[in-house]
Structure formats: C-alpha cells, structure tokens
Amino acid sequence: MSTSKVNTAKAPTFHVKIGSGFVLLFALIYFFDDSGFLAALFPAVLVHELGHVLFMLFFGAYPRRLKATLSGFEIDYLGSLNDTKELIIALSGPFFGLLFALLCAKLGQLWSSDYMLMCAGIGFVMSYFNFLPALPLDGGRVLGFMLRALFGEDKARKFMRFVGLLTASLLLLSGLYCVAKGFGFALFLAGIWLFILQQNKSCK
Q1: How many CB atoms lie within 10 A of CB 185?
Q2: Which of 145, 134, 1 is nearest to 65 (CA)?
Q3: Residue 110: which region, alpha, beta or left (left: phi > 0; alpha: psi -120 to 50)?
Q4: Which of 35, 71, 97, 124 has the most Cβ atoms closer than 10 angstroms to its Cβ?
Q5: Please, which residues have CB within 8 angstroms of residue 128's CB and are 6 or more apart in sequence?
Q6: How far is C-alpha 72 from the chain's CA centre?
Q7: How would you classify residue 112: left for phi > 0, otherwise alpha for psi between -120 and 50, otherwise beta?
Q8: Where are the domains of the chain?
Q9: How far is residue 176's CA from residue 45's CA, in Å, rounded to a whole number?
Q10: DSSP secondary structure string for all residues of 81-130
Q11: CB 70, CB 49: distance < 8 Å
C-alpha cells in the first residue's frame, strides 16, 4: 500500500478506483482458484488496509480515494503527514496483518477450521512479504523514509532503486529454486511482479 497527498479544500469524500490490470489479475485468480484462496485473501487484505487507514485517521489525515491497480493498493488522502507519521502508517498495515494471522491461527486450532488456518497462512505470508525492502511494498516505503532523512532525496532514490532491484532479483532466484524443487510458481511470479515495478518507483 502507498499513499499520496491530495490538496483540496472540499469536504472529504471517499472513492474507489479499480484499474483494468487489477480486474484482470482478480479474474485470473478467480478462474484458477479451486481451494478457496480468494475467500481467505479478502479478509487479510481488508485488515491490512484497515490498519493503514486507522493510523492515517489517528494522525489527522482523511482517506479520499482507494486505487486498486496491478501494482497494488494506493490511498490518496487529505491532510499533512510528515515522514515519521508516514513511516508509522506504513508499518501499521503489516502489524495489523500479523495480529489478524495470529488470531486466525488460534481460532483455526480451537475450531479445527481449515478456512481460518488458511486465513492465518495468507495473513502471515502477505505481512512478511510486505516487509521486503522494495517499493511499492511497505518495507520499501519505510526504508525510503529513513534513507531520505539520513542522505537526502537524490541519494535515497538511487539507493532504493538498487535495493529494490536486488530484492526482486533474489526473489526471482528463490522462485526459480522453488519451481525446480516442485514447490510451485508463486514466488517466481512475485519476483517478476516486483522486478517490473522497480522500473517506475521512486523512494517516495
């Protein structure tokens, strides 16, 4: 999830914008999903984004628009947030996601529910994946804020590009290993997705 400021004097109203790339991805997952993956993914994504929104509101910013694209979710907001607050907001999504995963794991054990255990697994994977130091992931945003504070905008942008490409490359190599061992294509596809996104992302 990423955020961007919207400068406007109008009363805040919330809109949702869904891109064609996101619709295509959703359709492909739906078509090939025979395990209930989407049903478990939806609450994990909802809790993750809710974590961002709650801390955004806590710091006095108002969400104006949620954009769902092939690169992920982005929330435009009305208000003023410094880098420290943005950093906390970036961390809040994975933090809420991990809490959600822990709760689902506990409930899955108590109720012997495969669905709750699947929610827990997806929540854990999604939260830890978002901690990777590459944009547009939350870990990349956090690292970008820290680097800008230490070295300034230009050096931070160059370093973030290097780290992002390195992270995506390592993910691709790990994905190829998983494919060779018969563990599936998920990690490899995630590496391709992250590698492509590095071509257009800056540190903010």
Answers
A1: 12
A2: 1
A3: alpha
A4: 97
A5: 94
A6: 7
A7: left
A8: 1-131, 132-204
A9: 26
A10: --HHHHHHHHHHHHHHHHHHHHHHHHHHHHHT-HHHHHHHHHHHHHHHHH
A11: no
Which pairs with CB-CB distance under 8 Å and at least 24 residues apart come from 173-179?
A: none
Helix (H) or strand (E) holding 63: strand 62-69
Q: Write out the chain's pLDDT in tens, 204 residues.
A: 555 555 444 556 778 888 877 777 777 777 766 777 888 888 999 999 999 999 999 999 988 888 888 777 888 888 888 888 999 999 999 999 999 999 999 999 999 999 999 999 999 999 999 999 999 899 999 999 999 988 988 999 999 999 999 999 999 999 999 889 888 788 888 888 898 888 765 433
One-letter amino acid at 108 equals: G
The CA distance from 173 to 162, in Å, is 17
Smallest CA-to-CA distance from 90 within 36, 134, 140 is with 140
